[in-house]
Automatic annotation (TrEMBL):
Keywords: Glycosidase, Hydrolase
Organism field: Enterococcus silesiacus
MF terms in GO: beta-glucosidase activity
Pfam hit, one: Glyco_hydro_1
Keyword Hydrolase: yes
Name of the protein in its database record: 6-phospho-beta-glucosidase
Active site, per annotation: E370
Any GO BP annotation: carbohydrate catabolic process
GO cellular component terms listed in the entry, alphabetical order: cytosol
Family: Belongs to the glycosyl hydrolase 1 family.
Length: 471
């Protein structure tokens, strides 16, 4: 028995800077992520060369059976100066991509902003640390809605605002010495929320039939024990990491506990007249969820100092250093869960928990915009990749989505695992692969970039063909 609706979108996801390459071709300029990939890994100049091979890649999508494809548009391809003159070559590229998808009955799901702020705007005014970004972002959105809105029904505003807030190096906002880092983060988050809401409003005005929402990075938080101190730490962590953003997106308000937190820590953002009304008005139609793992925390004593999270970028097991949020919580590992080589704790039930925590509260349609397993894949001599670990991961997560739909009444309308094809991992280059399709290159050798179907490709093909009856 399949419990996936007949209209369920069976997708897969990528993002421009990770897959396209051609980073300075046909008028494109650099974005902050083009510059921030660690030097020991492949840069974004060629990536998976999707820019030149998109037709071949869409043939593979067709063979896989995808009914949706989530990709992002590079702001720097459309507006090389961040604003102003439109680069026709950039528009042409995405027109061809979208047309080719539609020709193959694949629904395009477009991410407007996936970490790749134009460097020019970063240099001019510090990107999202300045309110000057708001009109520029809205103008960029207008170009996309006008150029592609006749064919694109699903839009994602900002990818993982929550992660950009937690790990600001992802967008390298300009740190200034005048304000505490915490204050700058909350200012940036407010500006991003206003930008997001403005995009939603504009989309509703220009494209009344389209649907728009954010892609939020979510990880449910668990207490280490049932000691009420740990439970409280977990609730606070859940608010800081997840509910804070959900309340802004879905209810247009700052969560009362977060207001108290921001007051106490002297990091209340500057809220201009009209901002909160705009945030309320710009309510999204659905939520995209990027889900990879869960987090576990315990209480922290008054004597312990705060410590930033240090993420594992090497794939060396155990090299993550968990964060301590002074007076609130500290991260710890979960003895019930296994981790991947990057210490991400694999937790399929956590996805069902997340879907429930969000849906039972907001009752807004949900789509999984990312979910997947980063691993070191081996291409055999006869060009096969036996990625049974990836199949296992995705199968278990799909089972939990199915349970959330059938037993919990959650409205999930699509699944876009990360990633359709191998691409540059944001933190770990080509060493850490996610795709259904293997790309023959490494971080140091570009090779022929030949595409090979992994075992997970054939597995997902069967899932899609059976509309989720055969997992
Ligand atoms: C998400 C990003 C993706 C992708 C993914 C996997 O945070 O939206 O762009 O990179 O995580 O992360 P990583 O590449 O670090 O393994």
């Amino acid at each position: 028995m399949s419990s996936f609706p007949e209209t369920f979108l069976w997708g897969a996801a990528t993002a421009a800077y990770q897959v396209e390459g051609a980073y300075l071709e046909a008028g494109k300029t650099l974005s902050v992520v083009d510059e921030s990939i660690a030097p020991e890994y492949a840069d974004t100049s060629i990536a998976s060369d999707h820019y030149h091979r998109f037709k071949e890649d869409i043939c593979l999508m067709k063979e896989l059976g995808l009914t949706a494809y989530r990709f992002s548009i590079a702001w720097t391809r459309i507006l090389p100066n961040g604003r102003g003159a439109i680069n026709q070559a950039g528009v042409d590229f995405y027109n061809q991509l979208i047309d080719e998808l539609i020709k193959n009955n694949i629904e395009p799901i477009v991410t407007i902003y996936h970490f790749d702020l134009p460097v020019v705007l970063q240099e001019e005014y510090g990107g999202f640390s300045s309110r000057k970004i708001i009109p520029d972002f809205v103008a960029y959105c207008r170009v996309l809605f006008e150029q592609f809105g006749d064919r694109v029904n699903y839009w994602l505003t900002i990818n993982e605002q929550s992660n950009m807030f937690l790990l600001p190096y992802l967008i390298s906002f300009t740190e200034s010495s005048e304000q505490s880092l915490l204050k700058q983060k909350y200012e940036m988050n407010h500006i991003m929320t206003v930008a997001h809401a403005s995009a939603v409003k504009l989309c509703h005005e220009l494209l009344p039939d389209a649907k728009i929402g954010p892609a939020l990075g979510v990880s449910p938080v668990y207490p280490k024990t049932c000691n009420p101190k740990d439970v409280l730490a977990a609730e606070k962590a859940e608010e800081l990491r997840n509910t804070f953003f959900l309340e802004l997106y879905c209810n247009g308000q700052y969560l009362p506990s977060m207001q108290a937190y921001m007051k106490e820590h002297d990091c209340l953002p500057t809220i201009e007249v009209g901002d909160m009304a705009l945030i309320k008005e710009g309510k999204c139609d659905f939520l995209g969820l990027n889900y990879y793992d869960s987090k576990t925390v315990e209480h922290v004593t008054a004597l312990e100092r705060g410590k930033e999270l240090v993420i594992n970028t090497s794939g060396e097991v155990g090299s993550t250093e968990k964060e301590v949020v002074e007076g609130i919580y500290k991260g710890c590992s979960n003895p019930y869960l296994e981790s991947n080589d990057w210490d991400w704790e694999i937790d399929p039930e956590g996805l069902r928990i997340t879907l429930n925590r969000i849906y039972q509260r907001y009752q807004i349609p949900l789509i999984i915009t990312e979910n997947g397993l980063g691993g070191i894949d081996t291409l055999t001599e006869n060009n096969q990749v036996h990625d049974d670990y990836r199949i296992e991961y995705l199968k278990k997560h799909l089972e939990q989505i199915q349970l959330a739909i059938v037993q919990d009444g959650v409205a999930v309308f699509g699944f876009c695992p990360w990633s359709f094809i191998d691409l540059i991992s944001t933190t770990s280059g080509f060493r850490k692969r996610y795709g259904f399709v293997y790309v023959d290159r490494t971080d140091t050798e570009v090779r022929e970039l030949t595409r090979y179907k992994k075992d997970s490709f054939y597995w997902y093909q069967g899932v899609i063909r059976s509309n989720g009856k055969r997992l």
